[in-house]
């Protein structure tokens, strides 16, 4: 029996997590393949929840699949699509089916997704969802009612260390920890010097921090992220390095860069681990890990 | 000044709503829709022309001073004979005006405008939604800036991860509400207010539809 994510967090080992995006539809083949590929080489697999507000197979169903396949799921839950009744109900269901890790997110705006006319819910925000989990654990729901059977989760949240201005994000980060976050997966980081500064501040809090690593697949993709993905900043040197890669080997270059960053983070122990987001290229995660010497 | 902010519906939609009514009376308003340039005298005259081009008979038109006001009843009474000759009233006011007229007259009414929000006029032709009347005002803790309304997600505990250069994730022109709140509270030396956890909001302070009666003994008017 593999260690639970909570045990891994407590072990002091360098932690690696990765993620899988559920399909748009009911064909689960590719996702099952990705889960099989990842489940033994990472401590836990995040299941994204309608990422970028694009309607997909639910993260809850995908997390069950990870369990069925013997992996350790981290259920991502956004506050965008469900009110507090639905969120709490999903938490009860997840717990009853053996899911023990939850990542609480506010969620992207509806208008960036593929159902632009839908109503965004945002009845709770990420810190309120964390607080709701801690309340359910005490046997009470948000309405103040007693539960017949409670839950117990390893709950986490995210932070954007590259945000500008950073100070309001840091206040929110502290609120998430106070509300009960045990681990933090960061938005993508590319500038390790800036990340070191963030970590020298973040170290004072009793929380494990996993640096977000988004695989670069080409120079245009890096430029696209700079323009369109909030809180992500790829430095010019890295874009140049990607652009200089010979034709057909940009992905290899991206794998090399990701591996190099992970190695540096691990060797210097800048933070407690990394969260690798390969965004559709999950099959290369083992190569990234090899490149990182893990 | 607060205003009811409107946008004219497309002519296709107006034509669809008018259906086979051929005799139309147009009603505009001299207040908010005049300032929004959606239902003042110039727009009413343009509408008259467009309807005539589309082979509808415009029996008459009227620009009420304040369509949502109760004196609207008198203005309608003065124009009663023309109105009674029309099959339908095409109303170029906000939805408050449309409903005021609909309650007064047994006649088909069709809104020519979409009512978007209650906004504050910050400059000529510039309107901002600053309050959505949520029922529990928290701006005493947010530097007088309303996150329930001006944060796109209505977040009350601080910014989402989507902020870019102080702007909102949905629009690089729109300030992130939480950047503004942070700056204001920092200037006031009150950042501790932002550090305080805000619990889930009560969305049922005044269950919809809102109804409010001033108690008889408290009435000063
Ligand atoms: S919190 Fe915002 S929406 Fe609610 S009453 Fe105050 S200003 Fe209006
Ligand atoms: S960027 Fe700022 S204003 Fe926009 S949704 Fe996020 S917190 Fe709200």
Helix and strand topology:
The complex is a heterodimer of chains A (294) and B (221).
Chain A lengths: L4 H7 L3 E6 L8 H10 L5 E4 L11 H10 L4 E6 L5 H13 L4 E5 L20 H12 L16 E6 L7 H13 L3 E6 L3 H11 L5 E7 L4 H10 L7 H9 L5 H19 L4 E5 L7 H7 L3
Parallel strand pairs in A: 1-2, 1-8, 2-3, 3-4, 4-5, 5-6, 6-7, 7-8
Chain B lengths: L1 E7 L2 H8 L4 E7 L2 H4 L5 H13 L3 E8 L7 H7 L1 H6 L2 E4 L3 H10 L3 E4 L1 E11 L2 E3 L18 H4 L16 E2 L2 E5 L1 H11 L3 H5 L26
Parallel strand pairs in B: 2-3, 2-4, 4-5
Antiparallel strand pairs in B: 1-6, 6-7, 8-9
The structure holds iron/sulfur cluster (2 copies).
The site of one iron/sulfur cluster (SF4) has 13 residues of chain B, from α8.
Plain-language structure description:
The complex is a heterodimer of chains A (294) and B (221). Chain A is an alpha/beta fold and 294 residues long. Helices cover 41% and strands 15% of the residues of chain A. Chain A has 11 helices and 8 strands. Chain A has helices spanning 5-11, 29-38, 59-68, 84-96, 126-137, 167-179, 192-202, 219-228, 236-244, 250-268, 285-291; strands spanning 15-20, 44-47, 73-78, 101-105, 154-159, 183-188, 208-214, 273-277. An 8-stranded parallel barrel of chain A has the order 1-2-3-4-5-6-7-8, surrounded by 6 helices. In chain A, helix 8 (219-228) packs antiparallel against helix 9. Chain A starts with a helix and ends with a helix. The model of chain A has no long low-confidence stretch (mean pLDDT 96). Chain B has 221 residues and is α/β, with parallel strands linked by helices. Chain B has 9 helices and 9 strands. In chain B, the strands form 3 sheets. Chain B has a 4-stranded parallel sheet, with helices on both faces. In chain B, strand 4 (88-91), helix 6 and strand 5 form a beta-alpha-beta unit. Bound molecules: iron/sulfur cluster (2 copies). Residues 151-153, 155, 159-160, 162-163, 168-169, 176-178 of chain B line the site of one iron/sulfur cluster. One iron/sulfur cluster (SF4) binds next to helix 8 of chain B.
């Amino acid at each position: 029996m593999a260690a639970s994510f909570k045990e891994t967090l407590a072990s002091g080992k360098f932690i690696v997590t990765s993620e899988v995006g559920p399909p748009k539809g009911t064909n689960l083949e590719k996702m099952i393949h990705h889960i099989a590929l990842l489940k033994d080489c990472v401590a836990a697999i995040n299941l994204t929840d309608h990422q970028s507000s694009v309607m997909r197979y639910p993260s809850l169903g995908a997390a069950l699949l990870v369990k069925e396949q013997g992996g350790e799921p981290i259920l991502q839950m956004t506050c965008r699509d469900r009110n507090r009744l639905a969120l709490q109900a999903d938490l009860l269901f997840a717990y009853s089916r053996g899911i023990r890790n939850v990542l609480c997110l506010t969620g992207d705006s509806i208008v960036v997704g593929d159902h632009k006319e839908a109503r965004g819910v945002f009845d709770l925000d990420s810190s309120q969802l964390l607080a709701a989990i801690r309340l359910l654990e005490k046997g009470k729901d948000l309405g103040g009612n007693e539960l017949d059977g409670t839950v117990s989760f390893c709950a986490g949240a995210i932070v954007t260390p590259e945000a500008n201005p950073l100070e309001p994000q840091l206040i929110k980060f502290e609120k998430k920890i106070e509300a009960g976050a045990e681990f933090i997966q960061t938005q993508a980081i590319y500038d390790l010097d800036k990340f070191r500064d963030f970590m020298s501040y973040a170290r004072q809090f009793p929380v494990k921090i996993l640096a977000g690593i988004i695989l670069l697949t080409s120079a245009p993709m890096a430029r696209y992220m700079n323009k369109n993905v909030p809180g992500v900043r790829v430095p010019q040197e890295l874009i140049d390095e990607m652009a200089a890669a010979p034709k057909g080997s940009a992905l290899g270059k991206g794998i090399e860069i990701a591996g190099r960053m992970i190695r540096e983070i691990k060797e210097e122990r800048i933070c407690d681990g990394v969260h690798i987001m390969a965004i559709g290229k999950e099959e290369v995660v083992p190569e990234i890990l090899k490149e990182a010497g893990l | 000044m607060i205003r009811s902010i409107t946008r004219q519906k497309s002519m296709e939609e107006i034509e669809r709503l008018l259906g086979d009514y051929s005799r139309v009376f147009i009603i505009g308003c001299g207040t908010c829709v005049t300032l929004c340039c959606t239902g003042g005298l110039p727009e009413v005259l343009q509408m008259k022309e467009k309807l005539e081009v589309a082979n509808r008979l415009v029996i008459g038109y009227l620009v009420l001073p304040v369509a949502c006001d109760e004196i609207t009843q008198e203005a309608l009474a003065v124009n009663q004979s023309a109105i009674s000759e029309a099959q339908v009233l095409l109303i170029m006011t906000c939805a408050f005006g449309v409903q005021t007229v609909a309650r007064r007259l047994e006649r088909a009414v069709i809104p020519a405008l979409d009512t978007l929000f209650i906004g504050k006029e910050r400059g000529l032709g510039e309107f901002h939604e600053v309050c959505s009347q949520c029922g529990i005002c928290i701006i005493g803790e947010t530097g007088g800036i309303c996150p329930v309304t001006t944060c796109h997600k209505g977040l009350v505990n601080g910014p989402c991860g989507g902020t870019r250069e102080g702007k909102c994730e949905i629009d690089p022109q729109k300030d992130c509400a939480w950047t503004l709140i942070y700056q204001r509270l920092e200037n006031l030396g009150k950042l501790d207010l932002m550090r305080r956890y805000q619990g889930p909001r009560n969305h049922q302070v005044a269950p919809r539809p809102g109804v409010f009666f001033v108690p008889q003994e408290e009435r000063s008017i």
